[in-house]
Amino acid sequence: MFDLAVLEAWLQFAVRWTHVITAIAWIGSSFYFIALDLGLHRDRDLASGADGEEWQVHGGGFYHIQKYLVAPAGMPDHLVWFKWESYATWLSGFALLFLVYYLGGELYLVDPAVLDIPVWQAALISVASLGFGWLVYDFICKSKFGDDNTRLMILLYVILVGMAWGYTQVFSGRAALLHLGAFTATIMSANVFAVIMPNQRIVVKDLQEGRKPDPKYGKIAKQRSTHNNYLTLPVIFLMLSNHYPLAFSSAYNWVIASLVFLMGVTIRHYFNSVHARKGNPTWTWAVTVILFIVIAWLSTAPMFQRAQTAELRGEALVFAQADGFGEVSDIVTGRCAMCHAKEPVYEGILWAPKGVRLETPEQVARQAGAIYMQAGLSHAMPPANLSFMEEAERRKIVAWYRGAGG
């Protein structure tokens, strides 16, 4: 029978899988329609009155696609809406944020060396920041300032840089970059939910009731869709960053995140230019490579080397006081600290994997759940059992964790 830790692990896996599936669907449709719109031939006088057309081939068949600038003369019998992908991606992402960072706040969300606050306060700041981001962005877009899209994008970038720095002053490095991704993804999904879809419904209603739709609704929706197009790649990077301490544990992690947004622009500019038949700007790849090299340099200049000196509390304190902890701590430091250390001694390991250090009893107590799952219930750690952890030692880890009520 599964215990709570196993159920929680599988729940996280299920939600993460759902998040990846829906994100693939959303990103795929978003990229496709942007490429389609840019590639339309608009220099043809089409009998249908469409603004442009394109012929495509895929899967053994040919597709003839036309786009109407505002709307067709009449409402089609069947209209496919692209919306669930965005909604499901955000909902599953927030569920994952709750499961990993709110429920596991002492381990992943709060770093006492950054800001020593209770997990519930950090969670409130997290939720408030996501709402704040959308409100500010939407206000600027609807203001006169937002009439100039280039000016708007520059200001949006400044806001993202400010949020990148701000998050690193509140959360752990891992949580800071993840939250910057969630902050951006919330803007993207809210664009679909609060702007793009409502505008499309207005156009549909006008068609159904025999009115000529106002082109402004399509223009606004296209602006938000274009913003989403340029923000997608940085969001993917930030969501993956929690697996790479070189990204989130650097002293310059907020600068790294800021440069990632520029890489997203250069990469998308290349593809958008090619799809629009406006040349082949290969210089964008050179700029992207240079930015990536700068990021790689910043990641080690220098790494955070904070000692875990804050007083144990909550679950970590319970595990530290449980029967068998002393023996388990010795097992873990003996079998795992060769890699999970400030200065790993195992050949080829330069930094502690995922930023996890297991050199002291306090660090072991904080990682109780991960140790139980990775080395107790499974043989995932040590990898290939390189340090020869014995089955009896694994059983002691399990007994200690369960004895503490885990």
Overview of this structure, please?
By secondary structure, this protein is mainly alpha-helical. It folds into two domains: 295 residues, no CATH class; 90 residues, no CATH class. It contains 15 helices and two strands. A two-stranded antiparallel sheet has the order 1-2. Helix 1 runs antiparallel to helix 2, helix 1 packs across helix 7 and helix 5 runs antiparallel to helix 6. The longest helix has 36 residues. The relative contact order is 0.09.
Structural class: mainly alpha
Low-confidence runs: 305-309
- What is the terminal-to-terminal distance? 15 Å
Note the beta-strand portion.
under 5%
Taking strands numbered 1, 2, ... along the chain, how are they ordered across the largest sheet? 1-2
The total count of helices amounts to 15
Overall mean pLDDT stands at 89
How many domains in all? Answer: 2
Spatial shape: elongated
Helices, strands, pairings?
Elements: H1 4-39, E1 52-58, E2 61-67, H2 84-102, H3 105-109, H4 119-142, H5 149-168, H6 173-208, H7 216-240, H8 245-248, H9 253-275, H10 283-298, H11 314-321, H12 325-336, H13 361-366, H14 368-377, H15 391-403
Antiparallel strand pairs: 1-2
